[in-house]
Amino acid sequence: MIHAITINNRTEVRTFFMNQWGASQMVVSSGTYDCASLDGFVWMNGSIHGLVTYVIRHDALEIISLDSLQENKGIGSSLLEEVEREAKRHRLKRLTLITTNDNVHALAFYQKRGFRLERIVTDAVNVARLEKPSIPLIGNNGIPLHDEIVLSKQL
Questions:
Q1: Whole-number Å distance between alpha carbons of 28 and 41
Q2: For the chain, what is the mean pLDDT?
């Protein structure tokens, strides 16, 4: 059910991002990414039910996006485990990711899986909004979106 993102499924991946987020562009403090062109994995059962994208830099694999269409079915966890295996295949020392200050669900998800809070990038979302004005001012649970939280996991 989990497959690498390849030329054969890039169109489906781009469509997934357009349907879920309205665009495949991600602007975070570590860079601007076209998620549909990144390396990653898809969880498929006829169609994409989840996907994860990443970049490798230096000694770390940075997760850029992780999406699951069905909560509590193990899709996100399975994709995260696959990314961890990929990092180990590359002999990397850690996984990193960035989420926003409103995303308490993601913070719980990742911390339960061994990630630790590494740092807060104050005003990072405000800066990203200059490049991508479609980033909302208010996020989950009515929380104003301003900052990024960097999490990491040692391998």
A1: 20
A2: 96
Q: How far apart are CA 44 and CA 55, in angstroms?
A: 21
Q: How far apart are CA 129 and CA 28, in angstroms?
A: 9
Give the C-alpha separation, 147 to 155, whole Å: 26
CA triple 127-132-49, angle to 5 deg: 115
14-41: pLDDT as tens digits: 999 999 988 999 999 999 999 999 999 9
Report pLDDT digits (tens) over 68-78: 998 889 999 99
Contact 123, 147 (CB under 8 A): yes
* 5 touches 13 (CB < 8 A): yes
Whole-model pTM?
0.94
